[in-house]
């Protein structure tokens, strides 16, 4: 697989770094509020995240009780492009388009994680992930053959009525044995936004489930490897015709 080139018009719509964690048993939602004080200047907008649970009580008249409790906080940056979620089960940092570079994204995520870690004192990290969502806008001046742009596409039987797909969703889950992780590729046709173009979502998600100590710096080295593999997967998923769309 090739490593990704630098594209002037990269199709990345969202980049995500995500950790699942185990917090101390006595940790409460209120302690998450201290994070707001640390990052409020850069992330001034916040909202409370709720976790919903449903309890089904059987009987002659079965009843369903819904319960909601505070599970975390979501913060949005001044420019509306950066978001941080801090919850009782993890930490997520995301960057919406336009995306600058992995180095900047990685560095900022690490600083925000340090704040989360200092306040929440997680016992360990149980899952680490890197995810990049791409939107590829293809001109439809004539009939589009998906395999002219993507190297992995739905294979429609020739016995079925042929024509341009109006919708599709495809998911592949591929173990990456050398990295001891799982690759998930989602492809889907997005709703049309720009006349004359069809938009394909190419969503690349890589994760590993294992136990790391929360102060283990090797997690960040591992994320670097996931990012490199993401680049390779992206390049392996597109054609030269697609690459020209990003130049």
Notes on the protein architecture:
With 247 residues, the chain is of the alpha+beta class. The protein has a domain at 12-22 and 92-245. 21% of the residues lie in helices and 41% in strands. The protein has helices spanning 33-39, 102-120, 218-237, 240-245; strands at residues 12-22, 45-57, 63-76, 82-87, 90-96, 124-139, 169-176, 181-190, 197-213. It has a 9-stranded antiparallel β-sheet, with helices on one face. β3 (63-76) and β4 form a beta hairpin. It is globular. The two termini are 21 Å apart. InterPro entries: CHP04255.
Main beta-sheet annotation: 9 strands, antiparallel
Quantity of strands, as a count:
9
The end-to-end span amounts to 21 Å
**Given the structure, what is the number of helices?**
4
Structural class: alpha+beta
Q: Round the Cα radius of gyration to an integer and report it.
A: 21 Å
Topology as a string of helices (H) and strands (E): EHEEEEHEEEEHH
Tell me roughly what share of residues is in helical segments. 10-25%
Q: Can you tell me the overall shape?
A: globular
- Write down the overall mean pLDDT: 90
Strand content: 35-45%
Strand order of the largest sheet: 2-3-4-5-1-6-9-8-7
Low-confidence spans: pLDDT under 50, at least 5 residues? Answer: none
Protein name: TIGR04255 family protein
